[in-house]
Hints:
It is a single chain. By secondary structure, this protein is α/β, with parallel strands linked by helices. It folds into 2 domains: 59-169 and 309-336, Response regulator (Rossmann fold); 171-307, Rossmann fold. It has helices at 2-20, 31-48, 71-87, 107-119, 136-144, 171-188, 206-222, 237-250, 262-274, 290-298, 309-324, 349-354; strands spanning 59-65, 94-100, 124-127, 149-152, 165-168, 195-200, 226-227, 231-232, 254-259, 282-286, 303-307, 333-335, 338-341. Strands 6, 7, 8, 9, 10, 11 and 13 form a 7-stranded mixed β-sheet that branches. Helix 10 (290-298) links the parallel strand 10 (282-286) and strand 11 (303-307). Helix 6 runs parallel beside helix 7 and helix 8 (237-250) crosses helix 9 (262-274).
Amino acid sequence: MKKQLFILVSLILAASMILTGCGTPAAPATPQTIVEVQTQVVQQVVTATPGPVTAPEGGEIAVIVKTGNSSFWQNVQTGAMDAQAELKKTTPKLSVTFLGAQSESNINEEINIVESAIDRGVKAIVLAPSDVTALQPAVKKAKDAGIPVIIIDSKLNGDASQYTAFLATDNKAAGEACAKTMIDLLSAKGITEGKIQVMSYVQGVGSEIGRVGGFNDYIKANSKFTLLQTQYSNADMPTALNQTTNVLAANPDLVGIFGANEPTAIGMGTAIKQANLGGKIVAIGFDGNSVLAGFIKDGTLQAIAVQSSYGMGYLGVKNAYDVAFAGKTVPAYVDTGFLMVTKDNIDSTEAKNVLY
């Protein structure tokens, strides 16, 4: 038996020398040596590969908007869901949810939606606040819970450090562009004085302050036109229709009118059409759904300022993901832009990319 064992050991040693070549025979690999080699390999992989080795775990990004009951916000949803589809390739368990209040004036409902998202532990929130101050406590609560918030469309007042980034149209610049277009169109008709009516939506909303403020300030500084008292529809189309009908009846000498958001501009355009005043007064709207595009084509409205609502949803989710899942730093402000659409450019590629 001992002789057989000796022969077996000799054969193993000979085979080992053959495999290792003509150099010095390698030391036998003990279990400890194997563990050390494996550890070194893992350390090298981690050092050489930037960021996490595996794909981020799943979680929810909650997109919360002023209301789901308008084409504008539905286009924001389209952008958000396209971003989700793209990001799921890296993070299959990612979930993007979309919620909004019944109306833009229902601020408490939006606050409740935000607080519910915080309570269920979402990874990030993309928020279009319906009020510049009322949503501040909810946003602070999210930050205290370690949930990054990306604000879109309307900037919050107060401490900007409470949220991670702000993505929106430069509403002041857009309002000024609408006013300049109004003055230019009236001047082309030989009209340099007269009444202009602003039909606005929810008083005090961040986008409204910039947009209508920019319009009014530009008119006052650059023309002799008289601004009538602003009308507020609370972003309700039938209300805007009734208000515009009354304004047109009370001011037969009105020369221009501006509808500052989608439902307000639709109500305004409908009233103008019903009164057979299309083309007789200069009318400018804001946002770009199919109804407003139709008003441009038939001459009811002369121009609409169209935001990239799709971009707000898409970039909002992408930025939220970069912060909450990838640990990246994102820009504090992103201007998502706007385009003045008229009958001259409505069929252009540029216009088609923003109309919805």
